[in-house]
Amino acid sequence: MASATAPTTLSLLPTATSSSTSHIRSSLLHLSPTSSSSSCSISLRSSNIRRLGFSAADPLFAHGVASKVRSFGGKAVRGVVSMAKKSVGDLSAADLKGKKVFVRADLNVPLDDNQNITDDTRVRAAVPTIKHLIQNGAKVILSSHLGRPKGVTPKFSLAPLVPRLSELLGIQVVKADDVIGPEVEKLVASLPDGSVLLLENVRFYKEEEKNDPEFAKKLASLAELYVNDAFGTAHRAHASTEGVTKFLKPSVAGFLLQKELDYLVGAVSSPKRPFAAIVGGSKVSSKIGVIESLLEKVDILLLGGGMIFTFYKAQGLSVGSSLVEEDKLDLATTLIAKAKAKGVSLLLPTDVVIADKFAPDANSKIVPASGIPDGWMGLDIGPDSIKTFNDALDTTKTVIWNGPMGVFEFDKFAVGTESIAKKLAELSGKGVTTIIGGGDSVAAVEKVGVAAVMSHISTGGGASLELLEGKELPGVLALDEATPVPVSN
Ligand SMILES: Nc1ncnc2c1ncn2[C@@H]1O[C@H](COP(=O)(O)OP(=O)(O)O)[C@@H](O)[C@H]1O
Ligand SMILES: O=C(OP(=O)(O)O)[C@H](O)COP(=O)(O)O
User: Fold this and answer.
1) Which PROSITE patterns did the record assign (predicted)?
2) Mean pLDDT of 23-48
3) Ligand 1 pocket by C-beta < 6 Å: which residues?
4) DSSP string, 427-469
């Protein structure tokens, strides 16, 4: 784990020359949370941050440094500023033995009509942190939401999670019928060391989503330490993800949360190059933030999905009845110009699979991007584009993918998306870092059966999108910072 890494200290002095500045900048980039999430500390002045070409909004700093830099305004910052969050791996066995630990996980899994879990990815992803805690003698009070219930709703109970959790953990998980209150307190008091109590769906209380401080305090009163491992919910400032940290110290990151940050912030901020991003999905409007943020970092940007037709139309091509956002035509033109100015190789599909209706049994044909007839709509990228994309991807060392290349829910229009999934699997096998940024791209990778070989598959759709946009996640910001290391200055 990161805590085993030797502590690293950088001093950014105001007198730094331009050559030392570039050295510091590259060292700093190298010291992403990936390489040293718990033991890297930096001494810096805000003037040097600017000189190094960083802005306080740089995602590299988003989860530690930036907030401090901002809070100091333009004034000199002296002393140690930690860039990472404290991890559950930083807590010693003595910190954990016999301690009641409130663990917020994201166990928001899909259930079928018979309340069977149809995809247990999030349950499996929560296991390493819980196992670590129980193996160190902690009493785990496990909390999650499921769905978006309005008040107590039996079909959103966490009861279906108990058998799978117990199986994966190798112990019988006890379930409470409530989230707070005397019955829950009684169950907590009776917990032996190394056990797990699963609380009921935390969203059964409306106070959860309101981040009500009184509710957060009641949650906190159940435990002595807080671990947030709910990456998929880290973009929500709710009582169990943010509010509770005000009442429980330490408040630390779980292993899953750390891994997500390592890849979606660390690997993206200091990628092995060439670095490519593949962005697809339905609309430009939902991916503007991601595209703009990635344009700052990538060498190659491949665009697919429904959004390409807005780019085509902006370039004067006919798009038939394809999905187009008329109010985003100027934006598409701006993004193309921005890519050019930044030297990013932006590839739009050169051919598309078109359909005569939006349906799985639609008639289809392949046409060049410039040849979409009236009444037809583009639902997938074509074979020439797949080849061009594959050739570009062959040159890369890091790839991040967010959003399908076509309407992959219909088999006839899933070829582009599935080809990308297969290509990334092949590249992963050759040592390329492959990151799947949540949402439908994860479903595509799973459909093709190549999920296991990817470097990282995010468990959060919305959360990963916000991270890739360079936003700060409230559930992460609220956690304690990693212990600072004294700076030699
Ligand atoms: N050419 C297209 N026309 C219409 N919809 C498309 C097209 N290509 C992809 N889509 C749709 O985009 C949806 C995913 O979009 P989005 O939610 O933005 O991606 P993600 O979930 O990966 O973030 C899928 O349901 C897919 O069917
Ligand atoms: O499934 C989730 O988000 P996602 O669908 O964006 O991956 C999380 O559990 C967050 O759920 P929410 O969007 O109801 O807050």
Assistant:
1) PGLYCERATE_KINASE
2) 36
3) 281-282, 286, 305-306, 323, 378-379, 402-404, 406-407, 409, 439-441, 461
4) HHHTT-EEEE-STHHHHHHHHHT-GGGSSEE-S-HHHHHHHHT
